Amino acid sequence: MAVSPRKPHLRPHPARPRPRTTPRPTPDHVPPGLRTAAGYAWRLLLLGLAAYLTVSVLALLQLPVIALFLALVATSVLRPAVDLLDRLLPRALAVLLAYLAALAVVAGVLVVVSTTVAGEWGRLGDELHSGLARIDRWLTGAPFHLHAGTVSDLRTKLDAFVSSHRSALISTALSGASHAVEAVTAIALALFCSVFFLHSGDRMWHWVTEQLPARSRPAWLRAGHAAWRAFAGYTRGILLVSASNAAMVGIALLALDVPLALPLTVLEFVAALVPLVGSPVALAVAAVVALAARGPVVALLVLALIVVIGQIEGHLLHPLVMGWSVRLHPVAVALAVIGGAVLAGVLGALVAVPVVSVAWAVVQELRHPPA
Q1: CA atoms within 13 A on the CB side of 67
Q2: I need a labelling partner for 322 at 20 to 30 A (CA). Which of 22, 245, 281, 332 fits?
Q3: What confidence tens digit (pLDDT) does each residue in 233-267 have?
Q4: Which of 187, 189, 191 has the alpha carbon at shortest distance from 98?
């Protein structure tokens, strides 16, 4: 019996894995520059939205925000005196003495200004009456050649306007009274907060940072110290600049024998707290008073003070007094003042520069961590 030959056993070869083919990327027709610009654009939109929401919330909380700002201003001004008295007295007594001295200075200035206004009011009325007649005669001559009685007609129209809109003016005055009550409330709250800031502000800030994660505490501590240095430096610097401007204006007005020189000097001090635009506005008011009381020559001399004091403030006082604490370009200062005025009026113009300087100081501190 024939035996069929046995076929060799063939093992099947394992199937080789097919190489994976990655899908070819679809051609992107967006230029890299446009893609980068789009990335920055949506980030800027988010930042703008966050800034808008922040401003809206702060507008709703205007009273406590103003009180907090005033409390920080008072703290930055009185902190050196309190630290000096703290070496000799308990901290609470040092705060009390510093506050009593500050309130005495403010009350003394208000009493002197009110006494001066009351004493010069009668003489000022006579001088303004004769000054208006002098301005009327001046406008009828060269180069204006207006018809006689221009200023008198304006005064008559103003009296008629006040008589016809008396109810509206009374309602405006009543709304102003409500704003005065809010201002008093904000000042009282600011005094209350600043007492605690002066007494234990460092402990309060350390308590706030202890509520944060441990990794972020050093950065927040450095940012807080940088923000306080910038804010305190700006506040003390702008007060020194305002006092210098007011001293120069007061000496000039007294030399020119302009009525209400002391109240106009105080107005210059308050207005100069708004950089760039406050001092010219106050001097314009002084020029109007000088024009009505002393004539056009003295008024032109007061207007010349705007140029002189502007040059001294811009080229000497600001670089010397505030350059070490607030490192902002004058263009940035101007844009900050205008932007703050657009967003929140006079109050926004007043707080815009310190807010921008604090933000810039914090950014600079966080961009350069300690080695």
Answers
A1: 18
A2: 281
A3: 888 888 888 888 888 888 888 888 887 788 888 88
A4: 191
